[in-house]
Amino acid sequence: MDIVKNAKSSYGRQYRDKLCSPEEAASIVKSGDALCFPISVGEPTLFVRALAARKHELEGVIVNQQHHLCPDYFTKDSAPHIRVNAWFTSHVSREAVQNGWADFIPNYFHEVPRLLREYWPIDVAGTVVSPMDEHGYFTCSLSVAYTMEAVKKAKKVVVQVNHQAPRTHGNCHIHISEIDHIIECNEPLEELTISPYHPLRRP
């Protein structure tokens, strides 16, 4: 029992030691770094906003991602500082790609994990996770597509713990020992709104 109690205490200490503000987490990004964020609700928005806020301090940072949420660095003046490689565009990134402020990389979705493993460098990976359990594990929650490959390959890992993020099972567990920085968040998760049917769209 002492071993279990000590292990739990150790995980708690590690959590507190790694807990930081979004600004502190964003400060680890250096010019020339390659970043990777998950799809949509897996995007660590607090971290992304803090990164965008210091974009003029950076040059040549590349963000790799599918389906983006935060619009803060999808502007013409952001491109020399933080440029996005979009693997799939969203309402946030589409205009930037069309105007040349961001790049589009055609791909087959099922190939993305292999492309991450074999070709695309990752200095920093960031993701939303569910709260830590008693064994020191977080889960990737609602965005497990290629997140684990990014986490495994990244030199630094930043997690945004959202207390509203559900716990998931399968190959999506990240241990506290694999994480460098923790941001806490209690924002509601993004939900897809369904537009009302128009008469012309009815079957």
Report a brief summary of the structure.
The chain is α/β, with parallel strands linked by helices and 203 residues long. It has one domain (24-188): Glutaconate Coenzyme A-transferase (3-Layer(aba) Sandwich).
Secondary structure layout:
Elements: H1 2-18, H2 22-26, E1 34-36, H3 45-53, E2 61-66, E3 82-88, H4 94-98, E4 103-104, H5 112-118, E5 124-129, E6 137-139, H6 147-153, E7 156-162, E8 173-175, E9 181-185
Parallel strand pairs: 1-2, 1-5, 2-3, 3-4, 5-7, 7-9
Antiparallel strand pairs: 6-8
Using only C-alpha atoms, the radius of gyration works out to 18 Å
The CATH superfamily name is: Glutaconate Coenzyme A-transferase
Count the domains: 1
CATH first level: which class? Alpha Beta
User: Helix/strand-derived class?
Assistant: alpha/beta
**CATH architecture type:** 3-Layer(aba) Sandwich
Q: Please summarize the sheet with the most strands.
A: 7 strands, parallel
Q: Could you give the count of β-strands?
A: 9
Unreliable stretches, pLDDT < 50, 5 or more residues? none
Q: What helical percentage do the residues reach?
A: 10-25%
Here the CATH topology equals: Glutaconate Coenzyme A-transferase
Give, in order, the helices and strands: HHEHEEHEHEEHEEE
How much is the average pLDDT? 90
Tally of separate helices: 6
